[in-house]
Structures are given as C-alpha cells and as structure tokens.
C-alpha cells in the first residue's frame, strides 16, 4: 500500500480559543486542582457516501491556574502530547484535532481514490486518534500524570501506548531519573530490571527470555515511562520496546528497598 505519514507540524496552525471543563483535585482539597480539556472531531476522507472516517477524541487533564507551577506542568504536558507549549490546554486540543483531521483528508484522500475499488483496502483508511489522561498522587505528594494513547493509521493493527510523567508538587518540575538516583545508577538499575523481568516471566537466563520473545534485538534499559508510587517505582515498557506487539505493555515494579543502593 502506498501511504503518506501524517506529520504534525503544529507551529503552522491557526489557533482559536475555547473554554475549560470540569474541575477537581487529586489531593483531597490541596492546592493542585485538575481540570480537563476535551475535543472530538470526525471527518470523512471524501464527500462520498459511506467514505472512511478519521475520528479524533482528546480528553486531556491539566492543572488549573496561571502561576509558575501550573504553567510548568501544563507546558510539559503539551510538549509531550502535541509538541508545543504556548497555548491554553483547550486551544491545544482543539488545534490538534483540527490539524490532524485536515492532514488526514489532504494526505490520504488521493490514495483512497486509487484504492477505493478494492474493498479489502478500506480498513487502511479508517483512522483513529484517541487520548485519555488521568492523574494520581505519587510518592511525597508528587503528581503522576498518565496518558493513554490509542491510534490507528492503517497497517495490521493500531498502536496503544501508555506515557507517564511525574511532577514535583511544589515546583511543577518534571522528575527524571537524575533527580532520583545517584550518578552511575544505570548499570545497577538495568541489572535490577533484568532480574525482575526474569522473575516475572519465570526465566533464568537471557536465552530463555529470547525464547519467550523478550529482548530479541535490544538490551534491557530504564524506560522513559515510570510511576513513582508510595512504596515502589513501576517501570512501563510499551509494545515493541522490549517485546513484540502481542505481549502488550510490560510493567516491572521495584520497591524502594530494592533500589536503596542507587537512590539519592
């Protein structure tokens, strides 16, 4: 199939403002208040009857307010989701939904017209882009921000990913491994993750992991996505990161006691 990738170049968008949505707090009345920006847009690839559709649904939580902490957190969320940080969150979701569906029609309609006589190819053009987010309280009151992405842009199957960001409650700064661990932590953390993966998969050697389709083309590594819980860190590997698509997400949990030798 000939296919053009939709490249999101958000700096070229014409932006419009909209209002906010439902509010709430994940800290039981503390000073971090959460609201949600929503956008839904459905377009057909052409104006013909029964043409394939592109469906976009965005439900993006954000921190209410315009103080430095809220701005820092919300900018980081926008960068992760949409690759820009200069808009309100409602502007961001509205603009992304409009741009994505417009790009779908522009890029995919010519290809669809070539393929529409072949009903077996119709599914290639039924696009979907869904984002749903959630927040929870993490270690020492940090804000854990969870993004669930479900998209389909042709091919054998869609893509599902879970993306996680952890924010310092006081400053809004995103917490990284360098904030958590001492210098030179990487080797020890990789060994701990490998041991946990062996335990979880009931294997003892790297060869046995390979037989179960883990780490076929890469070594274990600390993933970008992790959740700072009260008693442990959960490391999240999305499909294709250390295992094939059909394995789904791989979550490895290490207690702070196991990590004590490398924690700051």
Question: What does the model show?
Answer:
This protein is of the alpha+beta class and 264 residues long. 26% of the residues lie in helices and 27% in strands. The chain is built from five helices and nine strands; from the N terminus they run E-E-E-H-H-E-E-E-H-H-H-E-E-E. The chain has helices at 68-82, 89-115, 177-180, 186-201, 206-211, and strands at 23-25, 33-44, 53-63, 127-137, 143-152, 159-167, 225-228, 232-237, 250-255. It has a six-stranded mixed sheet with strand order 1-2-3-4-5-6. The radius of gyration is 21 Å and the shape is flat. The N and C termini lie far apart (51 Å). The model is unreliable at 1-22 (pLDDT under 50).
In the sheet with the most strands, the strands line up as: 1-2-3-4-5-6
| Residues in helix, % | 25-40%
Strand content: 25-35%
Our count of helices gives 5
Average predicted local confidence, pLDDT:
90
SSE order, as H and E? EEEHHEEEHHHEEE
Q: Low-confidence runs (pLDDT<50, min 5 residues)?
A: 1-22
Class by SSE composition: alpha+beta
Shape: flat
Please outline the major beta sheet: 6 strands, mixed
Cα gyration radius (Å): 21 Å
Number of E-type strands: 9
Spatial gap, N to C terminus: 51 Å
Condensed summary:
By secondary structure, this protein is of the alpha+beta class.
Features:
single chain; 264 residues; alpha+beta; 6-stranded mixed sheet; 3-stranded antiparallel sheet; 5 helices; 27% strand; flat
Show the helix and strand layout:
Elements: E1 23-25, E2 33-44, E3 53-63, H1 68-82, H2 89-115, E4 127-137, E5 143-152, E6 159-167, H3 177-180, H4 186-201, H5 206-211, E7 225-228, E8 232-237, E9 250-255
Parallel strand pairs: 3-4
Antiparallel strand pairs: 1-2, 2-3, 4-5, 5-6, 7-8, 8-9
């Amino acid at each position: 199939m000939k296919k053009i990738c939709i490249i999101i170049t958000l700096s070229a968008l014409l932006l419009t403002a909209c209002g906010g949505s439902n509010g709430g707090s994940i800290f039981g009345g503390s000073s971090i208040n959460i609201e949600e920006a929503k956008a839904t847009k459905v377009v057909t690839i052409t104006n013909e009857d029964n043409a394939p559709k592109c469906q976009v649904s965005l439900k993006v939580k954000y921190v209410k307010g315009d103080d430095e902490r809220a701005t820092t957190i919300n900018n980081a969320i926008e960068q992760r989701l949409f690759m820009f940080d200069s808009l309100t969150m409602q502007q961001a979701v509205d603009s992304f939904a409009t741009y994505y569906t417009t790009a779908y029609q522009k890029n995919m309609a010519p290809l669809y017209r070539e393929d529409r006589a072949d009903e077996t190819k119709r599914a290639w053009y039924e696009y979907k882009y869904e984002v749903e987010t959630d927040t929870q309280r993490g270690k020492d009151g940090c804000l854990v921000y969870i993004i669930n992405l479900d998209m389909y842009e042709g091919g054998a199957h869609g893509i599902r990913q879970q993306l996680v960001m952890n924010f310092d409650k006081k400053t809004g700064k995103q917490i990284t491994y360098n904030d958590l661990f001492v210098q030179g932590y990487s080797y020890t953390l990789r060994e701990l993750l490998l041991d946990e993966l062996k335990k979880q998969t009931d294997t003892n050697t790297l060869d046995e992991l390979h037989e179960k389709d883990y780490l076929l083309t890469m070594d274990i590594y600390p993933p970008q996505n992790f959740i700072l819980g009260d008693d442990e860190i959960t490391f999240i590997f999305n499909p294709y990161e250390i295992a094939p698509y059909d394995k789904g997400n791989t979550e490895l949990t290490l207690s702070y006691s196991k990590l004590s030798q490398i924690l700051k």
